[in-house]
Write a structure and sequence with these properties.
The complex is a heterodimer of chains A (262) and B (452).
Chain A (H helix, E strand, L loop, with lengths): L4 E5 L8 H11 L3 E6 L4 H4 L1 H9 L6 E4 L8 H20 L4 E5 L15 H21 L2 E5 L12 H11 L4 E6 H7 L3 H8 L3 E6 L14 H10 L5 E4 L7 H14 L3
Helix pairs in contact in A: 4-5, 5-6, 8-9
Chain B lengths: L13 H14 L16 E2 H11 L4 H12 L11 E2 L13 H4 L22 H11 L3 H24 L1 E2 L3 E4 L2 H4 L8 H5 L9 H4 L14 H16 L14 E2 L1 H21 L4 H17 L1 E2 L4 E2 L1 E3 L4 E3 L19 H10 L35 H13 L3 H18 L4 E2 L6 E2 L5 H13 L3 H5 L1
Antiparallel strand pairs in B: 1-2, 3-4, 4-5, 5-8, 6-7, 8-9, 10-11
Helix pairs in contact in B: 1-16, 2-3, 2-5, 2-16, 3-5, 3-6, 5-6, 5-11, 6-11, 11-12, 14-15, 15-16
The chains are: A alpha/beta (262), B mainly alpha (452).
Chain lengths: 262, 452
């Protein structure tokens, strides 16, 4: 089994600067830092700082665009796509190859969504098609991440996301598997990873309770076995909350994943 | 004869094989256990699950323990671990003989709502649990062992106390209990057993929808199988009068695996804080009985006994080589068995033979495509590979491992293989083929050797 390339989202790492975070990340066993942006303007403004960091050897393989409403209604979805498109050039300039886009409604749903998904699915499909073409030109993959039914629709499972990518038919449209959401939505998480293998572009790691891997009951052995069986060779990134101080829980979590075949 | 080198020079893609083996097991997973293969065998089989767990240990220890926990969740109140645990989500007529044929199950059967057959299969489970535990030490494993040990012990207690025949050996009451259903061992005992359903059997069988009739047991065999099951079922699966049943034999593979697993159970008892002594003693005694009473010097292998007539069944089958696993081999026994294994009957190391066939290649009734009457199977080959390693026969073990890898590389994860051509036979995507290949690839550091 290969040793996986594991990154950690930047906000989880201690340190005032991206360089300080990178120093800690390496000591904890990570191979890269996954950037995370929630705000429209701030990310573009960080380009200079991040470029300098890359020049100093910091590895930034992916960016997660949290807080967008890709799964929202038509207007909010279109706005979300515009925001993603605006960031593609920045990500490419940093050498990043993966953009993770959770298909969230942008707010927590009090009950599972009951809205008809047909129109939303159509909007998503068309938006993804345009975005993927542009991402492809920049050398970047746009990875749709299904989220659980309390946070978004109409894409809750890997199979649904793979179906969208299949419909779009562009290699730069891919699936990001989020293990926290899969724990809620997938009947057989390992089987789902294996089946979605050809479409996988990224994996977001969080345990069943949303904390770092090892803090819950996800079968990490089975997950990594499935990724290996699927021939996946991309990155996996910590995208979670922490159950304790990062200095102690992050190295322990990486160690656990490595032992589980990660 | 060539020993220790593969017959062909081209190197199999070991990483690809490993990935495909894992994918096969993951696809055959059904939430709590693994089916042997989706269409032909859509339920959980007892000894399949043990071999599958040995492979799952290389993917997910949690899943490996879950596989065996699910099986033992269907254990009968009398201790027997059933041959098949039926999946209630699968239509009852998808497999024959399905749940209706086995009913009624007695009160000392499984828990209400659990549907099983009333037979057992070779007890290799304790060895499988120990294999998983040794690979993954830790608190979760300790908990799994504490949960499984008493269940495994009850199964073995059932076999020793309820299935004892021929003064110190352990009997089986159906060819299916041997795991080698249509082995030539059972031709004679079956011949006197009658064939209750022979006329209707073709229409009832489901296996022929998924596999070539020429690769499966015959209708006549099946008719007799059903007659024997019906007799046992109609007595409420009672073991009070084993010799009064239409079929009762002693199988060297079944007894050897029980003795081997009883040894493993001693180690599991130690880990669970129980007394290992009685297990070690039972293992020693049964191994002694096998060695002293089932070996046929003229054939150079162990043979079966017809417990009803008391007569040995003098044939060379792969089951007669499996006692090589056991400690306490009498002087000269190891070399005699290795000579049989590498001689014309089984041909290990010969460029003309792939793996170890299930039956004597020189026998006039060998049928190289039909199930257990000639084809090479991965589980018996894995048992012999393990035995050869235990006995220090490293070169022969390496050669057998190489054959196993190449058979799968050439023909896929098939249920069994033609022992001369290597043609894949029976079902495809077969779980224990994948599981045991994973184990061979993990334990034989000889990847480089195959890459040459």
């Amino acid at each position: 089994m290969p040793q996986w390339k594991i990154a950690c989202q930047e906000q989880l790492l201690p340190g005032a600067s991206i360089e300080e975070k990178w120093e800690f990340a390496q000591s904890a066993g990570f191979d890269g830092i996954e950037l995370r942006t929630r705000d429209d303007e701030a990310f573009e403004a960080r380009l200079g700082v991040l470029k300098r960091a890359v020049g100093r050897g910091v590895v930034l393989p992916a960016v997660c665009l949290d807080g967008l409403a890709l799964g929202g209604d038509v207007d909010r979805c279109a706005d979300a796509f515009r925001q993603v498109a605006a960031k593609l050039g920045v990500i490419a300039a940093l050498g990043g190859r993966v953009v993770v886009a959770p298909v969230s409604d942008g707010r927590l749903l009090p009950v599972p969504s009951q809205r008809s998904s047909t129109e939303d699915y159509q909007t998503l499909s068309e938006g993804l098609h345009r975005l993927a073409e542009r991402a492809g030109r920049e050398g970047v993959s746009i990875c749709l991440q299904p989220v659980n039914r309390y946070e978004g629709h109409p894409v809750n499972t890997l199979d649904q996301a793979a179906g969208l990518c299949r419909a779009v038919g562009t290699p730069s449209a891919r699936v990001a598997a989020g293990t926290f959401h899969m724990n809620i939505e997938e009947a057989d998480p390992a089987g789902a990873l294996l089946a979605a293998g050809p479409w996988l572009g990224h994996v977001e790691l969080a345990d069943s309770n949303g904390f770092e891997p090892g803090a819950g009951h996800v079968d990490w052995w089975a997950a990594f076995a499935a990724l290996d069986a699927a021939g996946y060779d991309g990155w996996a990134g910590f995208a979670c909350r922490l159950s304790g101080p990062p200095e102690s829980v992050l190295p322990a979590s990486v160690s656990l994943l490595r032992q589980a075949g990660g | 004869m060539t020993i220790g080198t593969p017959p062909e020079a081209c190197a199999p893609d070991l990483a690809g094989l490993r990935r495909n083996a894992a994918a096969t097991l993951l696809r055959n997973w059904r939430g709590s256990a693994t089916v042997p293969t989706g269409a032909l065998y859509p339920h959980q089989w007892s000894w399949d699950s043990a071999f599958i767990a040995i492979g799952l240990a290389h993917l997910s220890p949690r899943r490996a323990f879950a596989e065996l926990t699910a099986l033992h969740g269907a254990q009968w109140r009398d201790g027997r671990v059933p041959q098949i645990v039926f999946n209630p989500a699968v239509p009852e007529d998808a497999y024959f003989p399905g749940p209706p044929f086995w009913r009624p199950l007695p009160r000392r059967g499984p828990a209400a709502g659990v549907s099983t057959t009333g037979l057992v299969q070779p007890p290799v489970h304790a060895t499988a649990v120990l294999a998983v535990a040794e690979r993954h030490p830790g608190a979760a494993t300790d908990a799994a062992v504490r949960h499984l040990y008493p269940r495994l012990a009850r199964f073995h207690d059932y076999l020793f106390s309820r299935r004892g025949v021929a003064s110190g050996l352990v009997g089986i009451v159906h060819p299916w209990e041997s795991g080698l259903d249509n082995s030539p061992f059972w031709d004679e005992p079956l011949g006197v057993a009658g064939a209750d359903l022979a006329d209707d059997i073709t229409g009832l069988r489901r296996d022929l929808r998924h596999a070539d009739a020429g690769h499966r047991p015959t209708d006549e065999d099946y008719g007799r199988y059903m007659g024997i099951v019906a007799a046992y079922r109609d007595r409420g699966y009672a073991d009070d009068d084993l010799l009064g049943l239409p079929f009762c034999t002693v199988d060297p593979l079944f007894c050897a695996l029980l003795a081997w697993s009883e040894q493993s159970l001693a180690e599991l008892a130690r880990r669970a804080g129980a007394d290992p002594g009685r297990h070690a003693e039972r293992a020693r005694e049964l191994a002694h009985q096998v060695h002293t009473r089932l070996f046929d010097p003229a054939l150079g292998c162990y043979v079966a006994l017809d417990a009803r007539s008391g007569r040995p069944i003098r044939k060379r089958t792969v089951a007669g080589l499996v006692p090589l696993l056991l400690p306490g081999l009498p002087a000269g026994r190891r070399s005699a068995l290795v000579a049989t294994l590498t001689g014309p009957a089984f041909g290990l190391g010969s460029p003309d033979v792939r793996g170890v066939p299930s039956y004597d290649l020189t026998a006039p009734d060998a049928d190289l495509r039909r199930y257990w009457r000639g084809p090479t199977w991965m589980n018996t080959n894995w048992l012999l590979w393990t035995a050869l390693r235990l006995q220090g026969e490293t070169r022969h073990a390496e050669r057998l491992a190489s054959d196993m890898v190449r058979l799968v590389a050439d023909a896929g994860f098939r249920e069994y293989f033609h022992p001369v051509t290597g043609e894949g036979l029976g079902a495809d995507h077969f779980s224990w083929t994948a599981a045991l290949l994973l184990d061979v690839l993990a334990r034989e550091p000889g990847g480089q050797r195959w890459q040459r």
